[in-house]
Amino acid sequence: xxxxxxxxxxxxxxxxxxxxxxxxxxxxxxxxxxxxxxxxxxxxxxxxxxxxxxxxxxxxxxxxxxxxxxxxxxxxxxxxxxxxxxxxxxxxxxxxxxxxxxxxxxxxxxxxxxxxxxxxxxxxxxxxxxxxxxxxxxxxxxxxxxxxxxxxxxxxxxxxxxxxxxxxxxxxxxxxxxxxxxxxxxxxxxxxxxxxxxxxxxxxxxxxxxxxxxxxxxxxxxxxxxxxxxxxxxxxxxxxxxxxxxxxxxxxxxxxxxxxxxxxxxxxxxxxxxxxxxxxxxxxxxxxxxxxxxxxxxxxxxxxx
Amino acid sequence: xxxxxxxxxxxxxxxxxxxxxxxxxxxxxxxxxxxxxxxxxxxxxxxxxxxxxxxxxxxxxxxxxxxxxxxxxxxxxxxxxxxxxxxxxxxxxxxxxxxxxxxxxxxxxxxxxxxxxxxxxxxxxxxxxxxxxxxxxxxxxxxxxxxxxxxxxxxxxxxxxxxxxxxxxxxxxxxxxxxxxxxxxxxxxxxxxxxxxxxxxxxxxxxxxxxxxxxxxxxxxxxxxxxxxxxxxxxxxxxxxxxxxxxxxxxxxxxxxxxxxxxxxxxxxxxxxxxxxxxxxxxxxxxxxxxxxxxxxxxxxxxxxxxxxxxxxxxxxxxxxxxxxxxxxxxxxxxxxxxxxxxxxxxxxxxxxxxxxxxxxxxxxxxxxxxxxxxxxxxxxxxxxxxxxxxxxxxxxxxxxxxxxxxxxxxxxxxxxxxxxxxxxxxxxxxxxxxxxxxxxxxxxxxxxxxxxxxxxxxxxxxxxxxxxxxxxxxxxxxxxxxxxxxxxxxxxxxxxxxxxxxxxxxxxxxxxxxxxxxxxxxxxxxxxxxxxxxxxxxxxxxxxxxxxxxxxxxxxxxxxxxxxxxxxxxxxxxxxxxxxxxxxxxxxxxxxxxxxxxxxxxxxxxxxxxxxxxxxxxxxxxxxxxxxxxxxxxxxxxxxxxxxxx
Lengths: 305, 647
Known about the structure:
By secondary structure, chain A is of the alpha+beta class. Chain A is built from 6 helices and 12 strands.
């Protein structure tokens, strides 16, 4: 265990001094921190195993090379011993049990409101992808952005993820690990930012031609600044019409843009009765719903003309 | 004209046109050469119609080496594109096609046939049999694989390559987002090769269970045979899933069903789930025979029996069971919740235990041994530390919360390459060098062999270690480019140097084959490595019937016992030997399968119907054919044996 700790410290030291801190190991939020801790801990233990294997190999190779032995030496027949085999099974089992406990605890941590944030009201943001963009809808604030994300610090954020198209994966490495966005269901990802700053966000799951540039920009700011930004948007941004949103969905790359209103009103996300997994009995309801929608949409188009 | 438009490449480039010309010239040269040297008859009689497991093994080997070249070129192009930021060598579409074909070619058309090559050549010899249980089925397996591989490989010059990744996740691979025929090739070519693999699975299970030499109980089988048995059991359970999955994918793409679509009740993650229910066991289909090779090589060159035989067998069986219980770890990020992730996280990490047992048993096989570092042994010794890097990072990936950060990044790419290259590729190269004298009657040059082993091992580290770091720094996999500000540049440059080193290493192996073919001595013993199991007990070259007298076995190291303890391996006298007849039907049927597949890819229905009938006709002919094989007489055996002993 002592060795493991030393290796751990050594690894961290090399990682931190050798180069700029690697993004994942430079967490700016509680979830990313949990993950970075797991990564460093397991790296430490695994380095210890790797060193042990290399050490045994070197010992065997230096001691039992043919060139180091008498010419007439005949290696003995050894079946294997219960004691040695028990140790070979026992130590890995103990390590796996230890890592399993850590892993399970972390699973429940990253799948819940971040620790220390439980008493704060979460900000809900619907993040949907389309080839090859991200749309961020703030339902309560009633605003929507494309390819950029403003969030307040010190407040839990619940991302609701889905996709207009292939499976994508929503990832802001410094705030926490990724999760899939799919067309037939809504996934929830809990994140929070501890410190203000600008972070890289991207789709991590291959989604075709425009995948490499399928990134977005994240800015975390104080609650006050965030409120001001929301007010500003509501005052200045153009409304998001269904027409406009259909244009936005077309395959390609877009810069950043901001809208008043969200697409959630005219194109509900695949959750609840709109969920893709509600086949069968709810299918008709869905179809009706769709008809309703198309009616309203034609109305609204009419209205705009 | 409309009809021919479908064969055009949707996204051509000078490189592709150059390849077309090169392929055309090669085909013409091969045909001209065969005609000029009057080798058509030889080719037909000795190779295309053969049912001999040794020749089929050699044909698998040649295919695997060709595909290694193809997949390697893909790899070099990828690494070259990513070597510097904002590189313009390839555009997004080409890059996508190349990483897709790299994955499929390397896994399905390189690693699989390489394993099949060694299994075909070695297993019947190692269990003291004269052929596999169903020799003609074996030929059909090979030719189906070969035609599947060829069909897949013409995709880039006719119609376009698949471009949705080797995992081909729907809905991306569906007609909604991949309109070209590329993904049709994926569905059909892998299907054809996969049917061949499934047949191999059945064939080898039967062979190993029913055709072992007298005295060879299950627990006296050599370790490579054990690994082949377990592998083929996994094949028989896992490949039907792939068959059904590819069928569903074909239905979605060609007949408008909605299994995986984004609309009308399709489920996007259904493909991914099924794919990995096959895909994860597939990983062990690749790695277990490799472990078998290492067990043979390490025990031979440590000059000692394999340490912990029973726990080696037990660990393989446990690995094979666990391999079916971990598929969700390929998408911990699907949103299945903390409980499901926890369960699969634990099963995943649990695989480390039996794998660790194997690693320690190899290390203890070296203990008190008399280690001789030959080229195969060098690969095995280099495998142990490099594979451990791949293995322990696998445990790290198994921690699901942390996996949210590793998933889809270069960290993952680094992990599976560090597992597959030292695990499978080193083993295949070790096996190739080890069994080369038995296959071809001369040894590969040791000095060049060791150079290539070192170059390949160091280059592997250079190519893949940087990816662990760039992955943790936020580089997603499958990105065709990145900006300079990301800081990924230096990592990827080192990777490129490593990839170039790998190319040099493999080129050196090719040179070694050329050099040794020209200069190596043909006067070698039947047992040049002083090995321990039955495959070395017969002559070199191996006669068609393998063993004149079936060997009598009393331990897992029968030859060693014969050499050291005076065990009588071949009691009795010559008797006539029953052998299977050659047949052209497997080859012809597979050619029909090729046309069938091609018609399917391009939805040309009339040839599809005709070839379907043709396939059934071939099967019908076989059902009514009376073919009882032939006998090799005692006199013929005596003559062959005398000649071989003289040689």
